[in-house]
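Ops channel
N.P.: pipeline sanity check, posting one input/output pair.
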C-alpha cells in the first residue's frame, strides 16, 4: 500500500481512528447495501429487467470505491473492514440467486458461482480463527470476480427473444465462463498460499510468546 511521506503520523491516525463508524467509505458501503432491495424491486416488482441489470452492474462496478477511499484518505475502520466484504458477499449472493430465480441463467452456473463464494468465505473464516497471517488477494481472483459481475447483468439483459439479446447472451457466456474458470483457479491457488499464511501466523505467535511460554504451550 502506498503511503505518504509522514508514515508515522499517518499510521498513528489510522490506528487511532479504527473505531470510527461515520466515515465516507462506510456511507458508500451502506448506500450500496440499500440499493440491493431496489435491484430486487426492479426485477420482480416493476418487471424492468434492463434497469435491474443496470443497477446490478453499477453496484458491482463500484465495489472497489469504498475500499479505495478508505485507504486513500486514511479512513480505514474496524466497522468498514467487516461491512465491506459482507456487502460484497450479500450483493453477489442476492444477484446470483435473483437471476437464477428469474430464469436468466442456468441453475448449474449459478450454483457453481455461489459454491465458490461459500468455499472461499469459509476458508477465510477458518484461517482467521486459526490465527493465520493476512493473505493478499490474487489478481486472478479479482479478474474472475470482475468478469462474473459483468456477466450476470449481461445474462439479465439477454433474457429475451430479440435478435440483439442473443448477441448479448453470447457475450455473457464468453465473459461468464472465463470469469468462473478464473474464480475457481484462484480458489485453488489460495491453497498453498493459505498453508504459508498459517505457518507464518503460527511462527509469529510463538515469537511473540517467547521461548519459555512456547515450551509451556507444548507441554500442555
Amino acid at each position: 500500500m502506498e503511503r505518504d511521506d509522514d508514515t508515522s503520523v499517518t499510521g498513528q491516525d489510522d490506528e487511532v481512528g479504527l473505531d470510527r463508524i461515520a466515515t465516507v467509505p462506510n456511507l458508500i458501503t451502506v448506500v450500496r447495501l440499500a440499493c440491493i432491495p431496489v435491484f430486487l424491486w426492479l426485477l420482480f416488482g416493476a418487471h424492468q429487467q434492463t434497469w435491474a441489470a443496470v443497477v446490478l452492474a453499477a453496484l458491482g462496478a463500484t465495489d472497489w470505491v469504498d475500499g479505495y477511499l478508505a485507504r486513500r484518505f486514511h479512513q480505514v475502520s474496524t466497522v468498514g473492514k467487516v461491512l465491506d466484504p459482507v456487502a460484497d458477499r450479500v450483493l453477489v449472493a442476492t444477484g446470483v440467486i435473483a437471476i437464477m430465480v428469474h430464469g436468466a441463467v442456468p441453475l448449474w452456473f449459478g450454483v457453481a458461482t455461489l459454491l465458490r463464494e461459500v468455499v472461499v468465505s469459509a476458508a477465510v473464516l477458518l484461517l482467521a480463527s486459526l490465527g493465520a497471517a493476512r493473505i493478499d488477494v490474487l489478481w486472478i481472483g479479482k479478474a474472475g470476480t470482475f468478469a462474473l459481475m459483468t456477466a450476470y447483468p449481461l445474462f439479465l439483459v439477454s433474457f429475451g427473444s430479440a435478435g440483439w439479446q442473443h448477441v448479448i447472451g453470447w457475450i455473457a457466456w464468453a465473459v461468464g465462463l472465463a470469469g468462473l474458470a478464473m474464480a475457481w483457479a484462484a480458489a485453488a491457488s489460495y491453497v498453498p498460499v493459505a498453508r504459508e499464511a498459517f505457518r507464518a501466523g503460527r511462527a509469529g505467535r510463538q515469537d511473540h510468546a517467547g521461548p519459555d511460554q512456547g515450551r509451556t504451550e507444548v507441554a500442555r
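N.P.: looks fine end to end. DSSP finds nine helices and no strands in the chain.
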